[in-house]
Amino acid sequence: MSIKILALDTTTEAHSVALINNEKIDARFEIAPRLHTQRILPIIKELLYKQNMRLGEIDLLAFGHGPGSFTGIRIAISITQGLALGAHLPIVGISSLVTMAQSAWNQIAATHVLAGINARMGEIYWAEYQRNDQGIWTGKETILSIKIVLSRIATLKGKWAIVGNIWKIYPELSKTVPDLQLIETNIILPIAKDMLPLASRAWQRREIKKVEDAIPVYLRNEIAWAKNSNP
Which residues form the Gcp-like domain (predicted)? Predict the structure, then answer.
C-alpha cells in the first residue's frame, strides 16, 4: 500500500508544504517570513485539489517541530492540530535540522552532514548527523555558541556536507581545518518535500503520534532548563 502523507513546515522564514499520493509528489516552497498563517492553508487546499484528494484521505500528517523560530514552530503545531483533529489524522513531528540532512542525502547522497540554523544572539541550532545503511540519521541536536561550534568543527575529519543558513551568516565556520573537507550545498532552509521520506520511515517504524502529542522542540528553553536544574 502506498502511504499518503501531507507535510508542512513553518519553522524558519520559509514555509513549505508537500503531498505524496501513489508516489506522485506535489510541493510548494516560499520565503515569506510574516505570511505563514495566510499562505499555508491555501497551499494545502491547492495541493489536495491538484491530486483530487480530500484531507480525510491522508494517512499521515507530518509537521516541522523545530528547532527554529518560536512563532513559526507554534504556527506549525497549531495548523497541524487543527487539521488532525478535524480529519482524525495521526501525526509525526520532524526535526528541521534532520530535514536538511535528508535534503543533502537526496541531492548528493551525503551520509555525514553538519546542520545549523541561526538561533540569533550569537547562537546556533546545531547537529552533526551520520546516516546508517537503514537510512536512519543519528546526531544530537543542541544550541551552541559560535565559539563552541568552531571548536567542534576543529575535531572532525573526513567529508561533511554543510547545510543551513549559518554558513553564510558566519563564514568563519568554513575556515580550513586539517583532515576535514566541508562540502558546500545550496540547502539553506528545511523544505517539506524532504520531510516525506522521514515521515514514511516513522510510519514504518510505528513512531506516529496522536494529535495531543504534538510537541515543539525549541532547544533554547530546554538547554536553559537543564542548566537551571543542575546544582
Answer: 30-136
